[in-house]
Amino acid sequence: MQLSYLGINVEKLDAQWNAILFDVLGLEARPREEGEPLQLRVDDRHHRISLYPTGENGTAYVGWEADTQAEFDRVLRGLREQGVACEEADARLCAERAVMRMVYFEGPDGVRTELAFGGVVDGQPFKPSRATSGFNTGEQGLGHILMASADPAATVQWYQDKLGFKVSDYIHWDEAKATFLHCNPRHHSLAIMNPCFGTGAGELNHLMLQARSIDDVGRGYDEVQRLGIPLALTLGKHTNDHMTSFYMMTPGGFAIEYGYGGRTIEDEEEWEVQFYNAPKLWGHNLGKAQD
Ligand SMILES: [Fe+2]
Question: Which molecular-function annotation in GO is an example for this chain (predicted)?
């Protein structure tokens, strides 16, 4: 299983978005007509991120992808047995998501959640809009997301029972209590916390994209300073996943973390679930909004 794709409603697509998406992250935009969503590539997939300029900020959907048809069928059967009403996506919707098959349902906190299989690999290679070595995706998927929940314990249980996620570890700091969950070797694809730091229940706090080189992150950090992009957190390193990263504040009301070097969970038996009292080993100081 992997975090396959993300759909996000945004007030509008402006110069600030362009600076973050293209000048710093080097994502590739698919050609689009007026009124269509902005589909963004991070790897050989058709796209993994869709931004919908709807006039309002918010998470449109979160897409999880089964590795095999058999896993898709098994997880779907489990969802239905546990009383989750799943709707099968039609051909048009599957084409929009660029997947072979998809079902959608309501996840915790009313978040539209989708289970897919067969993400479309594009015939054309990924062409980053800034010279980078690309992103660490593959079996680890798009990256990770941190969302707030009105009932974090129930939500964490939901992902374990319904999608088979496993707990990686926990961090409690300031007013935050966060649980980190994995569904492939990526240390966490999903983290759930109580509503805090301005992130309400069902809202996205941040999306993390992992570079394949620390130099990509360092040069991105240079671009952030040059362009005056507001930082949510300065460069730093996390206690639990060991990611070296910084967080940009987007106009969409959530942050994008750009990181390198996150550790993986290769052996479930060997992994020890830890409880940390701080999210950072160093850095990750509160950024100042820049004008
Ligand atoms: Fe993160």
Answer: dioxygenase activity
- Token pair, residue 224, equals 């952030």
Q: How far is the CA of 92 from the centre of ligand 1 (A)?
A: 33
Q: Model pTM greater than 0.85? A: yes
Looking at the structure, do residues 103 and 208 belong to the same domain, yes or no? no
Q: Tell me: do 73 and 39 sit in the same domain.
A: yes
CA 283 to centroid of ligand 1, rounded, Å: 14
d(CA 4, CA 11): 24
Q: How far is the CA of 212 from the centre of ligand 1 (A)?
A: 16
Domain containing 197 equals: 138-290
206 C-alpha vs ligand 1 centroid, how far in Å? Answer: 7
**243 CA from centroid of ligand 1 (Å):** 8
Note the pLDDT of residue 288.
Answer: 64
138: which DSSP letter?
G
Would you state the structure tokens that stand for residue 63, as one six-digit string? 């897409």
3-state secondary structure of 143: coil
- β-pairing, 231-238 with 280-283? antiparallel
Between the CA of 86 and the centroid of ligand 1 the distance, in Å, is 29
**Cβ proximity of 119 and 65 under 8 Å:** yes
Assess whether 149 and 35 both reside in one domain: no
The pLDDT tens digits of the residues spanning 14-61 come to 999 999 999 999 999 999 998 899 999 999 999 999 999 999 999 999
On whether both 201 and 246 belong to a single domain, the answer is yes
Residue 283's identity, in one-letter code, is G
- Number of folded domains in the chain? 2
